[in-house]
Structures are given as structure tokens and as C-alpha cells.
Amino acid sequence: MDSSRARTTSGLHHWSNTVNQLSTKMNGSSLIERLLVTHRLKSPDDGMPRSEMSDKSAPMRALRLDTCLREVTIELLPAADSSTQAISDPESLNGIDAYRLLLEITTGLRSKIPGETNVFGQFRRAWQTFLNQGHPTTTAGLTPLIHRLCNDTKTVRNNWLKDIGGSSYGSLVRRLIKPCRQDRVLFVGNGELMASMLPLFEKFQLGVWNHHAIKQAPVTVDAVFQPEQGSRAASWADHVILTTPCDQLNDQRWRVWLSHTQPSTIVHLGHRHSTRFDWEADITAFNLDDVFLLHQQQKAIRSDKLDKAHRACANLTNLLGSEADIYRRQSRLYSAGLVTA
Q1: Topology of domain 25-162+301-335, per CATH?
Q2: 3-state secondary structure the chain
């Protein structure tokens, strides 16, 4: 009898250890049915976020992600309620559907600018806060799922969303001229277009020339050239971006100044193909139509990458679902004593 009891006890321990090892190996798949995500899109007149109104003295029972666009609550259903079920709250998702929603949020696919990276940083900070302030049972339960989510997010971003680029004038012109880190970029003109483009070139040396004296240049500008210093500005620059309108007098004097310096590239945003301006033969020159063409090409590439990223999220979610099915079948077999290690 004692021997039989010992064998039974040993078998139970063995089954428990085997299931735990299987659960660890599957990295969160055993918990997926208990995952509950409540998702609310914010309206412009929303007041204080709900997470700010919670009782900070009590341990947090749910992980909350609060961004400018949405409020997401992530928690685990009690084990007794873990069977797949219809959630009455229309903003709530359970199980695999909940995981896919989270993955599309953390990869930036649900953002206003699809593919942006800020939301993943916000999510990781929210998780770190929850690790410090959350209820120990909930943090322990969510940890394998969150680790899986972070790894899947990195997989999608690294394979399909890296360098998908933006569509502003600054980002497009930067892609056209491909400046090196040590290059000097000169802006001709001191208007709104120049100001909107400067942030995209902050890691390069920046210069500005204007036909009127510049009273106060942006702090990111390294060199400010006075109207009479056009030739010096041209000699200083590796790349020249003209943000000025098509103007025969201004264009001609810049043609003369640049003919003695041979910069790597010139971009004239005031010219189109129909008003093409002839620079020196050895200068690589672009105009506004070149920027528009690049934009169309980037849109096609971006759209293709976003489509692939969406499919990758679906595939990774399906993989998790398949692993959860395997875990459930194996658990039942071990529990029934039909399978041994």
C-alpha cells in the first residue's frame, strides 16, 4: 500500500513537473485562454485617464496602457472562467483575439501613423510600472504572456517594419540626398518649409542662408550666413536644399556660387520638371517632382510592409493558439496517465 501510494505521489509530482516544463517551453500558451483585454478608444474631450483615478495605495490588479489614442486594460480571468467565452463588454476580447489585438497595438499597426515605435516604449514602461506596483499573483501570471508579446513585437518590427520611413518633406528629401553623419546641409530660405524640415536633419551640421538677414536662427543651426555671404555658404555646404520659390535672379546667383564648389547634391523645392533648372553637369540635382515620385514609391513599399506585418501578427497569434492546443491535449493525457515521459 505504501509502495503504491509512493508510486502515485511520485507520478503526480512527475506529471506536475512535466506540465510545468511544457508550460514554460510554450512561453505563455498555457495562459492564453485566461487573457482578457479591455480596449477603449479615446475621444478628444476625454478628461483624466481612468488609470489616474485608481487607488494607488492598493496593488494593481490589471496592467493598464494609457496613450493619447487608447486605454487598454490587460488581466487574467480566474482559472474557473478560463474556457473560451463570449465577453459581454463590446470593448473586451478574450484569448487569442485579445493577444492579436495587443500585438497589433505594440507593433504600432493600430496607431495613427502605422508602424510607429513610440507605443511599444509606452507599453514597456507600463509593464515595468505594473511589475513594481501590481498584485504579485497577477504579475506572475502575466509575465510569460508579456515576454512572449514583447518577443513577437520585436520579430514583427525587425522583419517587416524597420525603416518604413515617413512622408514629410524633410524625411523624403533626406532619403533623396542620403547625407553622411559628418556632412554639412545648407538650407536656402528661412520660411515655414525650412523650419518644418530642420528636425529631420538635426544629426548633421546645419547652415541657413536667406536673402534677408536672419535675426534669430533656430538653436539647431550651426552656421548662419548673411545675404552677402552666399558664396561662402556655397563653399561650406555638402548638400544644398533650396526652400525658396522659383525665382530667376535667386536661382542664377546660386548657380554661379555653386559652380565653384561642386556640392554632392542640390534639391530645389521651388522647381518642377516642367521648370527644370540647369545646374552644373557634375552636380546631382533634384526638384519637387523627384520628391513626389519618391513619395509614391515609398507609399507602395510602406503599404507592402504594413500588409506583411499584419499577416505576421496573424501568423504569430495562430502559432500561439496551436501551442495552446498542444498544451491542453498533452495536459489531459498526462492527467489521465495515458502518456509518460
Answers
A1: Beta Polymerase; domain 2 (3.30.460)
A2: CHHHHHHHHHHHHHHHHHHHHHHHHCCCHHHHHHEEEEEEECCCCCCCCHHHHCCCCCCECCEEEECCCEEEEEEECCHHHCCCCCCCCCCEEECHHHHHHHHHHHCCCCCCCCCCCHHHHHHHHHHHHHHHHECHHHHHHHHHHHHHHHHHHHHHHHHHHCCCCCCCHHHHHHHHHCCCCCCEEEEECCCHHHHHHHHHHCCCEEEEECCCCCCCCCCCCCEEECHHHHHHHHHHCCEEEECCCCCHHHHHHHHHHHHCCCCCEEEECCCCHHHCCCCCCCCEEEEHHHHHHHHHHHHHHHHHHHHHHHHHHHHHHHHHHHHHHHHHHHHHHHHCCCCCC
Q: What is the pLDDT along the chain (341 residues), one digit of tens a residue?
A: 444 444 434 443 444 444 344 444 456 667 888 999 999 987 755 443 444 434 444 568 899 998 878 899 999 998 655 444 444 455 899 999 999 999 999 999 998 878 878 789 899 999 999 999 999 999 999 999 999 999 999 999 999 998 776 667 898 999 999 999 999 999 999 988 999 899 999 999 999 999 999 988 888 999 999 999 999 999 999 999 999 988 889 999 999 999 888 899 999 999 988 877 788 767 899 999 999 999 888 888 888 999 999 999 999 999 999 988 888 888 777 776 665 55
- Match domain 169-282 to its CATH number in 3.30.450.20, 3.40.50.720, 3.20.20.30, 3.30.110.40: 3.40.50.720
